[in-house]
Amino acid sequence: TASLSDTESARPLSPETDIDDEFNYPPPNENQPIMAAAHALHQEARMWYSRDNDLIAATKRIASLMAKLSQIVRGEYGTKKDLITVAMEIAECSLEVTRCAKALAKECTDRRMKSVSSPSVVGCVWKFFSQ
């Protein structure tokens, strides 16, 4: 897995340079909030190179899983078992994002980042990457 220094050295790159950038889902309609959220998350994540960057890789995976979840919920394909499987995969990826955020917070020079709760840390990390 990537070290924290690898995560810190992430630079915005063009989407064409990231081999992990596989997101082949149709644009959302107005009545598709999950698909809209998946597209928005993917747009943010694709600004970063995900090779050797666990946080960005997990984020891209969550975006793809959210799009798949949207299709299952809308009845476009899949079964209840597929719905449960995708939901569990999203939960696992969310744990990876939390793990990465906590690791970043531990190395942060701002003492407040070391003492806040997990949801706050994750929120701060997401805010940082969306700037």
From TrEMBL:
SUPFAM superfamilies the UniProt entry points to: alpha-catenin/vinculin-like
Keyword annotations: Actin-binding, Cytoplasm
Any single Gene Ontology cellular-component annotation: cytoplasm
Main location: cytoplasm
Biological process annotations from GO: cell adhesion
Region (Disordered): 1-31
InterPro entries to which the protein is assigned, alphabetical: Alpha-catenin/vinculin-like_sf, Vinculin, Vinculin/catenin
Record-level Gene Ontology MF annotations: actin filament binding
Transmembrane segments: none
Pfam families registered for this protein in UniProt: Vinculin
Subcellular location: Cytoplasm
Family, similarity comment: Belongs to the vinculin/alpha-catenin family.
This protein's name: Vinculin
Species in which this protein is naturally found: Schistocephalus solidus
